């Protein structure tokens, strides 16, 4: 791509509409033939992974991705400001930036800068040397806003939609010299030595820089069109990115929560950093669906404020039987956790109540996060994950409220001796399942893989008593975690997260632009034959979306006639039922290359009661996992399997146990699935379908 592989695109015709401005002064941004110039200074576009694309329906606007796309002058430039200067632009944000993101930034060093930017709390500012004109009023997400900044030789002023928003009187340098960037703050830094901060996530419309004048511009009409939708073209060629699983198109995705069905629409929230495939400055991602199958991404539903949650919004959940629906959530300010309350708006986003329920963790505990709320006879009980100061026990803290508004800390919740491993209890869940109660959590266990555990027992409004204190693993391999659970009529629906688990290094994640996926909806219930155990199946709408058809290879001996299916590149669904006699085993080959060199194998040993996921012949990419995972399955003679194969994500159920994991096949044709038997294994029926 040139320039040491950074992907600098010269002849940047796409920037022409962005930088075209009325010729008010000789040094206004203007397009030259074949490239963009500011006077004699050429601009180059940094877009090594995702192109800087026009915004559909918005004249002269470009979509920046929040981490890897921006433009800057090829060489340092000198800008005279003593006789005044005007900067103006139409902008629309898709997400709060991790660090202040600049619309335009000339970095001259030693505070000799010109910067028009927005901070992580959506507050705009104009910096000119030592002067700073700013406002505490945040900009909205997803809407066009006109920002303008002026300096008349004595005062710097900031205008928002034509109204004066801030000013600062004083002297500024007569000239500034340095690289000038569009869509990036040049001193924003990096995370994990890869992910660049201070890059604009959203649209920048017509932009003008006018030296020699100081008259505040009139906003005029906005560019028009939907400004912040993530372009499908950014990920159209990524064969690893899941297309069926619920997830946003871009960024970092993790723990789902607060699953809510309201007015015929499902709202699914999740931890998110829309600015890139890395963890930082977390907001609530928001997905909606009418059928739990087809999901659409909306703007972040809850974002950091300047208060107790200024450095990130963590997990929260519904307060039952409140109208309009309300939530409790935890946020962090960089050193401590707080507990807040917010109200659901008609579009599914949330507006904070004034103040916070708790600005810090109660004394004597290491931290707190992830409230879950239960309706009791006396009001409401909020359960919040925590651990001891000594980091030697995971536990739950409890708050009570008579009205769901005022909350009182009452101490540690009595879990009835449930044996939770680890040093911290994350994501507590307590809810009815059938005529019993389900308690769940995902502990932090040093030097061990994360698992989600659960117990079945009884709850009296203040104390949970498990039938068995020993924890049970929610999923088969510890690779489908932290489910959010909601009632849908008489059934319980659970959606968990399928983590990447560090398989791809940061440069690969940066290039991909996304990390982690959410699992498809499972229905969970108590197993009829094992009442202390949860059984799961994919929600019926999932299979129906693939229109599966029965295969001809039915009622066959799988040891003599193994089944082999070419799934193709699109999301695929497979379901089968088998009879397995004692001593026999079933092997499922996933993502097999035609030559057999690449295959991830799922082996079911029913008589022994365990399953293994063998990755040692899986992805041939150098960052693929090469381990063997093990999980327990019931010893049954009739086996039901349902699988979704969707990019890198594979999910479904085996013998009533949910599963979800990521594999990254290197081979372009690694799309085959096989079903083999060792010993007496008869395939009763099988069906498959594609989206």
SSE inventory with pairings:
Blueprint: E1 8-9, H1 15-19, E2 30-32, E3 35-38, E4 41-46, E5 53-54, E6 62-65, E7 70-73, E8 77-80, E9 85-93, E10 101-107, E11 113-118, E12 124-128, E13 131-134, E14 145-151, E15 155-160, E16 163-169, E17 175-182, E18 190-191, E19 195-196, E20 201-211, E21 251-262, E22 265-273, E23 283-289, E24 296-302, E25 312-319, E26 326-332, E27 337-344, E28 350-352, E29 369-376, E30 379-387, E31 394-401, E32 408-412, E33 424-433, E34 436-444, E35 453-459, E36 464-466, E37 472-473, E38 481-488, E39 491-498, H2 506-512, E40 514-515, E41 517-518, E42 522-527, E43 530-538, H3 540-545, E44 549-550, E45 556-557, E46 563-566, E47 572-580, E48 585-592, E49 600-605, E50 610-614, E51 628-632, E52 638-646, E53 649-654, E54 657-662, E55 672-678, E56 681-690
Parallel strand pairs: 21-40
Antiparallel strand pairs: 1-4, 2-3, 3-4, 4-7, 5-6, 6-20, 7-17, 8-17, 9-14, 9-20, 10-11, 10-17, 11-12, 12-13, 14-15, 15-16, 18-19, 21-22, 22-23, 23-24, 25-26, 26-27, 27-28, 29-30, 30-31, 31-32, 33-34, 34-35, 35-36, 35-37, 38-39, 39-41, 39-42, 42-43, 44-56, 45-56, 46-55, 47-52, 47-56, 48-49, ...
